[in-house]
Amino acid sequence: MGALTVTEVDGEGALDPGDPAWGAVTATEVTLVPVPFDAQMNAYVRAAWTGREYGRSGPVELALAEQGDRLLARLSWEGSAEPPGEFSDAVALFFPPTAGTASPVTIGTRAEPVSLWLWRDRLPVQQALPSATQLVAAGPGVFRPESADAGVSARSSRSGRKWTVVLAGPRQALAAQRVGVAVWDGSNDERAGIGAVSAAWTEVGS
């Protein structure tokens, strides 16, 4: 399959997952795999998750659109039939710094961190953060806030088990013309480096 194209859309409603404009935007299916267990950097995580299954989410249907200097990404996937517990369902779109960056399965490395747009269904009461935020990811669970607010926003909808989320942020994030996707299943206590991630980069055409 060729590279995923970015389609220009009009109107102010494209942030809505159900906006009719998305009907004219080509989508591709992104295959996900578990974040490699041997790449987990946290000793507690390795001990707590030994022998447990995770990263079963996916595939994700991904479509990209643009409005001026804004990039919009529509992501759809089947969530769990079980309700989330302590942790929320979440999805992220992430961008490597260069086209030559290694595999996306670790969600960045210390040598080549990636920029990550993260949406979460809900947050613990004590965390005063928006549902969408921009982070720097340097490996499984090694996330920190971007130094400057890039104005990442999101809207979501759910029908049965199917989540549909639209993330929006600066068009310049796509400079390397490739993206990765990650999904966390809150009902399985997934968070940080425990989740599902793109098996390969999705190449993006001009």
What layout of secondary structure does this protein have?
Blueprint: E1 6-8, E2 27-30, E3 32-34, H1 43-49, E4 60-67, E5 70-78, E6 90-95, E7 114-120, E8 132-137, E9 143-145, E10 153-159, E11 162-170, E12 178-184, E13 196-198, E14 202-203
Parallel strand pairs: 1-4
Antiparallel strand pairs: 2-4, 3-13, 4-5, 5-11, 6-7, 6-12, 7-8, 8-9, 10-11, 12-13, 12-14
Could you characterize what this model shows?
The protein is mainly β. It has one domain: Immunoglobulin-like, CATH 2.60.40. Helix content is 3%, strand content 37%. It has one helix and 14 strands, in the order βββαβββββββββββ. The strands form two sheets. Strands 3, 6, 7, 8, 9, 12, 13 and 14 form an eight-stranded antiparallel sheet that branches. Strands 1, 2, 4, 5, 10 and 11 form a six-stranded mixed sheet that branches. A hairpin with a 2-residue loop joins strand 10 (153-159) and strand 11 (162-170). The longest helix has 7 residues, at 43-49. The protein is globular.
